[in-house]
Amino acid sequence: MRVVAVMNYKGGVGKTTLTANLGAVAAGRGLRVLLLDLDPQTNLTFSFFSIDDWHEQLADNRTIKQWYGGEMPGRDVPLPGLVVSPGRVNRALAGTGGRLDLIASHLGLIDIDLELAALLGGTTTLDGSKRRFLDLHGCLRQALADDHFAEYDLVLIDCAPNFGLVTKTAIVASEQILVPAKADYLSTLGLEYLVGNCAGLVQQFNDFVNHNGGTREHRPIDPGMLGVVFTMVQIYSQDVTTAQRAYIEEVRLNSKVPVLQSRIRNSPHHFGDAGETGVPAMLRANSRDKVVREFDQLAGEVLTALELTPGAPR
Ligand SMILES: Nc1ncnc2c1ncn2[C@@H]1O[C@H](COP(=O)(O)OP(=O)(O)OP(=O)(O)O)[C@@H](O)[C@H]1O
Ligand SMILES: [Mg+2]
Fold it and tell me: Burial letters for 130-156: b for 16+ Cβ neighbours within 10 Å, e otherwise?
């Protein structure tokens, strides 16, 4: 099982669209995919469930909010019990051998970061606070190590556009980080900051693990930067616009983050109605559409990097 966090501090860069569609395309290639919605905006969840269904079936007891809430994440509510199989997308995947499951989010997750921060400060001894730091930041990683999740090939985590504690648990849990970005000044500006903050978190986590002599529960982490994938790229007469090409080149030459070959074009026609059908656009679109080919290329690039290509030993 490979765990990938999809993150960027910048809002509206296509994280959720990418998570839903990359997950769907990977499932269409026969993989068993679990999507984890860690954003209180709950957009990924609403890509698969109507708001009414979410209220009726999930909101009260089957979302990640119940898992993070309480005394300590996961103490009262086991993570495997939160997995749901959205019907419409899985019917669309029939015959592919793949599957797309989801752990839903909740609008109330917005309050959880503060509660977790309070838990983090709740001990007085140095050893106690290091222990608490590891338990809190490592909670999702530990939960995903449950045998139940071994049936998945790929877990994609849709993060909120922030670096709060919930997002940090996703980074600790992930083997790789995928960073969707728009090819514009503000989106590319934040990339170094994001890389620096991730590195700082990894170092602190590992320092604390080593300080504790490598506790049985927590092991050092080493999440890799899978890379930046440029989304909503403007194409005119078959080519990326000059301005955007300059931003992409700037990141490619000067950033510590690798840039993926694949790009996703701006296509309001395909992504304008996100969430209304319960089936990600790439499973509904004509396979000859250019953006479908781009997503297919992206899936190939990501799955190869993760050594999850069809036919590879699982
Ligand atoms: N390739 C694309 N072409 C056109 N529109 C797109 C594309 N990708 C995403 N969008 C649209 O852009 C908007 C933002 O996308 P999305 O919600 O995926 O971004 P996000 O990074 O998850 O945002 P947030 O930070 O708020 O979680 C949505 O309305 C979505 O439908
Ligand atoms: Mg989002």
Answer: bbbbbbbbbbbbbbbeeeebeebbbbb
Report CA(17)–ligand 1 centroid distance (Å). 6
**Angstrom distance (rounded) from CA 41 to CA 46:** 9
Confidence of residue 187 (pLDDT cuts 50, 70, 90): confident
Residues in the ligand 1 pocket, defined by CB under 6 Å: 11-17, 39, 41, 43, 161, 231-232, 264, 266-268, 271, 274
Dist. CA 3 → ligand 1 center (Å) = 22
Instruction: Supply the pLDDT for residue 190.
Output: 86
Output the average pLDDT for the chain.
93
Q: What's the CA gap between 92 and 82, in Å, rounded? A: 22
Q: Look at the block and give the residue holding tokens 């199989």.
A: 85
* Domains defined for the chain, CATH in brackets: 2-305 (3.40.50.300)
Do residues 173 and 102 touch, judged by C-beta distance below 8 A? no
Q: What is the pLDDT of residues 241-268, one digit of tens each?
A: 999 999 999 999 988 899 999 999 999 9
